[in-house]
């Protein structure tokens, strides 16, 4: 069961990377990111997307506290800077 959860988390992480990396400099709302990753709509996405972005920054940013690649667009969503 642990390996299945790990696989699911990695699959979501790869989807998340693909969503933002394939459209550099495009701003994505939290809802758009959620729909690409989970393939469904949910009304309360803020906390879940925040956690996903935080984990992704830990993996790809030199300093996640001052991110270079994943920019937060306040009140809108996130943008992957190429």
Task: Please give the structural blueprint.
Layout (H helix, E strand, L loop, with lengths): L1 H20 L5 E3 H9 L7 H15 L9 E4 L3 E4 L2
Antiparallel strand pairs: 1-3, 2-3
Keywords: DNA-binding
Protein name: OmpR/PhoB-type domain-containing protein
GO molecular function, one term: DNA binding
Helical stretch tally: 3
Low-confidence stretches: none
Number of domains: 1
User: Class, according to the CATH hierarchy?
Assistant: Mainly Alpha
Q: Which CATH architecture is right?
A: Orthogonal Bundle
Along the chain, the helix and strand elements come as HEHHEE
Helix content: 40-55%
CATH superfamily: Winged helix-like DNA-binding domain superfamily/Winged helix DNA-binding domain
Structural class: alpha+beta
Mean pLDDT: 80
Spatial shape: globular
Q: What characterizes the major β-sheet?
A: 3 strands, antiparallel
Widest β-sheet, arrangement of strands: 1-3-2
Into which percentage range does the β-strand content fall? Answer: 5-15%
Over the alpha carbons, how many angstroms does the gyration radius reach? 12 Å
Whole-Å distance between the termini?
37 Å
Number of strands: 3
The CATH topology is what? Arc Repressor Mutant, subunit A
